[in-house]
């Protein structure tokens, strides 16, 4: 017998798992982007000894 509430529970569990995976991947992507920005900023000579903060590292 087909039980729609079981299908709904499985579907919801898959949706939650997909959302968690997507959140993790997006978080890693933001971290990688911040690391690249900091690396490139470190390579660029700064006038007057100033330091440039990577815009993505602070979330702004």
Order of helices and strands: H
Unreliable stretches covering 5 or more consecutive residues: none
State the end-to-end CA separation: 54 Å
Number of H/I helices: 1
The helix fraction, in percent, is: 55-70%
Which helices and strands occur, and which strands form pairs?
Elements (H helix, E strand, L loop, with lengths): L3 H40 L17
Tell me what you see in this structure:
By secondary structure, the protein is an all-alpha fold. The protein has one domain (4-49). Helices cover 67% and strands 0% of the residues. The chain has one helix and no strands. It has one helix at residues 4-43. The chain is rod-shaped, with a radius of gyration of 21 Å.
Q: What key attributes describe this structure?
A:
60 residues, mainly alpha
Give a quick precis of the structure.
By secondary structure, this protein is mainly α. 67% of the residues lie in helices and 0% in strands.
